């Protein structure tokens, strides 16, 4: 009798224990595991921004009494200048002043960009350090004109250069062309009573190759100066035009 009671007690205890066990249905367990597995793939992926190096955009000015543009809205103290000191050329921080000067040939009062040194060119940026600039062995002056038929021979960085001017006509020139070692640098279909001039030849972009600053008026009452850099050269060419400034002083 005692054994029967003991067995009954054990059976009752097992049933109580089983009833207290928290068991989920199989479908619920499978669903929970699937949700957890999916959550492993839901991750925030940060987009990687590829920063492309922007090409330099050059702007230039020269000392001049401007009518067509206002240099005060263009130049600032972050600009540099190419200037001459004795026989040497330098790039340094731009030193200038802006004045309003009367002009007998203009109905308005032009804005004059005045230099503090013997400045050839103001430029917004150059990829070289400030200081002395390497130049070609050619004499630069206001009379260094590149009239049709003229040739300038010089060397730079151990290389020989021939800068040649060609055109048809006399006072009204057609197809006024500048050739550098036979490669065309400039060609203007018509130039009226004006001559091109060489203002600078040397290295301005720091790559050890020749760069040029040229005066290229298409009329005798026009200001037009262009900067040519080897670092802006199209494939297979020696240099390309990086910037140009143009204005007018006609009466």
Describe what this molecule looks like in 3D.
Keywords: Signal. This is Lipoprotein. It comes from Prevotella scopos JCM 17725. It is a single chain. This protein is 13% helix and 40% strand. By secondary structure, the chain is mainly beta. A hairpin with a 2-residue loop joins strand 10 and strand 11. The longest helix is centred in the first third of the chain and has 18 residues.
User: Structural class given helices, strands, pairing?
Assistant: mainly beta
**How far apart are the termini?**
138 Å
Strand content: 35-45%
Average pLDDT over all residues: 82
Number of DSSP strand runs: 17
The parts where pLDDT drops under 50 for at least 5 residues are: 1-8, 16-51
| C-alpha-based Rg, rounded | 39 Å
The major beta sheet can be summarized as: 5 strands, antiparallel
User: Overall 3D geometry?
Assistant: globular
Helix content: 10-25%
Order of helices and strands: HHEEEEEEEEEEEEEEEEE
Please state how the strands of the largest beta sheet are arranged side by side.
Answer: 1-7-3-4-8
How many helix segments?
2
Present the secondary structure layout.
Layout: H1 2-19, H2 26-39, E1 60-61, E2 64-66, E3 80-85, E4 88-93, E5 96-100, E6 111-115, E7 118-123, E8 131-132, E9 145-146, E10 151-156, E11 159-168, E12 172-180, E13 183-192, E14 196-202, E15 211-215, E16 222-229, E17 240-248
Keywords: Signal
Protein name: Lipoprotein
Signal peptide: 1-19
């Amino acid at each position: 009798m005692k054994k029967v009671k003991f067995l009954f007690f054990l059976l009752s205890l097992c049933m109580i224990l089983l009833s207290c066990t928290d068991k989920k249905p199989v479908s619920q367990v499978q669903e929970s595991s699937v949700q957890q597995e999916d959550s492993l793939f839901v991750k925030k992926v940060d987009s990687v921004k590829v920063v492309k190096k922007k090409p330099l955009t050059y702007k230039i000015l020269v000392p001049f009494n401007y009518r067509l543009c206002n240099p005060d809205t263009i130049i600032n103290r972050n600009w540099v200048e190419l200037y001459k000191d004795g026989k040497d050329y330098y790039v340094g921080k731009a030193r200038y002043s802006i004045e309003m000067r009367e002009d007998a040939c203009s109905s308005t009062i032009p804005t004059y960009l005045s230099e503090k040194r013997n400045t050839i060119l103001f430029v917004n940026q150059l990829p070289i350090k400030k200081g002395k600039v390497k130049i070609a062995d050619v004499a630069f002056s206001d009379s260094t004109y590149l009239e049709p038929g003229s040739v300038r021979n010089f060397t730079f960085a151990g290389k020989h250069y021939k800068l040649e001017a060609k055109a048809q006509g006399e006072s009204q020139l057609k197809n006024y062309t500048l050739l550098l070692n036979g490669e065309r640098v400039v060609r203007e279909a018509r130039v009226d009573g004006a001559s091109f001039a060489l203002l600078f030849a040397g290295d301005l972009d720091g790559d050890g190759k020749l760069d040029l600053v040229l005066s290229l008026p298409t009329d005798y009452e026009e200001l037009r100066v262009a900067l040519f850099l080897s670092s802006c050269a199209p494939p297979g060419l020696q240099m390309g035009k990086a910037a140009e400034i143009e204005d007018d002083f006609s009466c």
